[in-house]
Amino acid sequence: MGNAVYSARAVVNLLPMRSLAGLLSALGLVLAPANLWAGGSGLNVIVVVNQNSTNSVQLGNNYCEQRGVPPQNLLRMTNWTGGAVEWSRTDFETLLLQPLLGMITARGLTNQAEFVLLSMDIPYRIADNDSLASHNGTTSALYYGFKDDVAPPRCLPASCSLPVASSNSYAFSELPFPEAPPDTAPTNSFLAMMLTASNLDTANLILSRGVASDSTFPTQTVYLEQTSDPARNVRFAQFDNAIMDSRICGDSSLVWIVSDSTSYTNVLGLLTGLANLSIPGNAFVAGAIGDSLTSYAGELFEDSSQTSLLVFLNAGASGSYGTIWEPCNYTQKFPDPLDYFYQDRGFCLAEAYYQSVLNPYQGLMAGEPLSAPFAHRGAADWSTLANGAILKGVATLSPSFAAAVTNLPLGRVDLFVDGTFVQTITNLPPSAGNSMAVTLNGLGVNYTVPANATVASVTTGLAAALNAQTNSTQVEAFAIGDRIELQSLNVAVPGSGVTMSAASAIGSAPQLTTWLTPARPSFLDTSATGYVAVLVSNAPAAGDWVQLAFTKTNGTQVTVGATNTTAGTTVAALTQSLVNSVNAALALQGPDGVLASDFADDTYCGIVAAQFTLYARSPGWAASQIQVTLTASTNLLVLPSGTYGLQDNINDLRPRNHLYVSSGAVSLPVGFQFDTTQFADGWHQLTAVAYEGTSVRTQTPVSRNVQIQNSPLSATFTALLAGTNATLSTPLQFSVTASENNISRIELFSTGGCVGVVSNQSTAVFTAPSAMLGLGLHPFYALVTDTAGHRYQTQTVWIRLVPSFTISISRSPLTLSWTAIPGQRYNVLAATNITGTFQSVATVTANSTSAQWPISAPGGAAAFYRVQISP
């Protein structure tokens, strides 16, 4: 190699693939392109990062980029250094809740902040020092306030109480969250979720999968698993309801399975009940929801001896749930399988989960809150407004929207400027005088929309009108948000024989904005099996007995029983004998018979009891008509008393249908006056967002980048670096020069708000706090204010902060090596003089965390090399 000299340089300049001039021609883009789906979007999310964790900051930045979260929607939590497990109620309120509420108010986000995303390395459990040592999940406390435990029943721990104040009024509402926040929340309520994992790469993967799931309309199976664990198996009684509602909507993906296996692949969901489980890494498709009912699945980074919810997220699920303290197995504290029905309707993951948990105070919601695999996004256009248009004074603007499908009209349009809500452009609630007509079993029922109606009030009013005719139609109506659930009351008529049609008419209103959509033309028969739960209590003495008398649907009578013949026999043993007698009776083993199952010994805390369930051996409402009479000797208490059918789940047994109410228009051209004088001159992004006129409120956005020009004030904004990438160690500087000298203030803005300010000067050079901002994509712009109060907002420059890396050189053969980001492209540049011009000689795409480039012999001349990220 002679006297050749080689110089390996670390990152220098970070030359871009596209020029800075090209970037500035983006016309002041304030929000990065992003997906905007379902009842919420990045516009509605507050991202909270722990500033003392580089992983938290980087993940938060990635979330903002992928979900289009406006830079002012990021909150930096600066004073927490105590780890990611637990903090006190005082620390939670002082370091998170109060700064969050203050930030939302100060930045004018009150009318749009609905979701809070906690970006890893933030404690997931709150401990209070009250007399009962109450514990809450951090996400739940953000949702509806900290809930104190109350005196527990019997000898259970205090955490096994079910405080009245912990009931979630939003649960099962099927209403837009802003219209139905939990009524026990002492402050603003937020659909809060934590995006976390054991490492940053996994957390980023959870995020990217959640984003990729939007509107993919997956058809994979959701498994509702009934396990052999009696304490954690209790949610199976809720399976039929969710399966039925999903089937009515044409979705048969929910499957009830009796199994302890979790060896699934490529599934859309898993609801199980096991303390310990393992799941393959490819178990879930993007957008999946999965969780297990067990005590400590919310204890993520502790040795709780139980499997944490992270196993679901690591296996590909976009969301999961677990409790952070001993909850006991109250089903109210865990997600109801209806969360899959809500997801199927188009609600995003956070909405579906919070609607499905009645008492979530001890729970932790984890995952990507905006994931919405079944959201129907409409179409939008703003052909009358070009990017770069100059607006002055009061401008007339006219975006237009079209619904995705005719039964999902668009009901409202909002305007956001630079990511902040400004005004509602148009709103099409149900019009007073619109006429609704429903025909059930040939009988017509009419309803007229009253004044000041909402979709929810129309649903309630129409359900009442239908119920006024129940004696004739033999159909009962239940109003649930924007949906009316209809149940047939005639056991002799199958669902196919119960017909329904519905129509809307303009009536006396000036326009038709209220719509009815039946899920099906006829009712759907159940796939559920009728059952009744049986309880036997008190300690039996010798000679005590318990007996079941059955009258089958064909009139045949069968009697079975069990008698205690020895002293000391437990009630559990006597009840088990009764179960065995039922299952051994030949007359009860046919399709018209009965099965006794789900035996459990309920003897604890001084209570002496046992229970089991009697099931019809065939599914359907007709098969559940078997009559049962339970009797016992006077020393024993048995429930239920009297004669009854196998119909504890009567609502699951009746044929059903759904009727949906919506408002708006399928085609929605919008014209409005935009007063530009209310905003700073300069560059702005206008975003008009149309909302589906149902409870789901899927968003359809359209944006334009414009320049407002009402005063002579202007300014230039220049990034003092060559390119659009920089490392944290690279000085990140920007110059601002105002067109006038009477300047009172110049502010530099980036992710999280203002990052620099100077006063009483017309030019300024800012050095951005790169380390504080963290790795990721960041916007930078300046706001100039003169002494007369005129303001000018500059165009936005986007800079990606990337990791620093070191370069080494080795001999035999000569090779450049450097730490790399897998998948990232790098430019290798060379020069014969270190002060000369470096020219690109190669581009390398890293396949791993280490990249290499073999050096060709320079022919005796000195050579110098640099490696730079290729944006």
Summed up, what is this model?
The chain has 871 residues and is an alpha+beta fold.
Features:
871 residues; alpha+beta; Immunoglobulin-like; 6 domains; four-stranded mixed beta sheet; 14 helices; 15% helix; globular
On the 0-100 scale, what is the average pLDDT? 92
Can you count the beta strands?
54
Q: Give the amount of beta strand, in percent.
A: 35-45%
User: Roughly how much helix do the residues carry, as a percent range?
Assistant: 10-25%
Structural class: alpha+beta
Shape verdict: globular
- How many distinct helices? 14
Rg calc: 32 Å
Q: What separation lies between the terminal Cα atoms? A: 34 Å
Largest sheet: 11 strands, mixed
Looking at the chains present, what oligomeric state does this protein adopt? single chain
Number of domains: 6
pLDDT < 50 runs, ≥5 residues: 1-37
Characterization of the model:
This protein has 871 residues and is an alpha+beta fold. The chain folds into six domains: 6-16 and 805-869, Immunoglobulin-like (Sandwich); 42-367, no CATH class; 379-428 and 666-707, Sandwich (Immunoglobulin-like); 435-526 and 656-663, no CATH class; 531-648, no CATH class; 711-802, Immunoglobulin-like (Sandwich). Helices cover 15% and strands 35% of the residues. The strands form 14 sheets. Strands 16, 19, 20, 38, 39, 41, 43, 44, 46, 47 and 48 form an eleven-stranded mixed β-sheet that branches. A four-stranded mixed β-sheet has the order 1-54-51-52, with no helix packed on it. β51 and β52 form a beta hairpin. The longest helix has 18 residues, at 89-106.
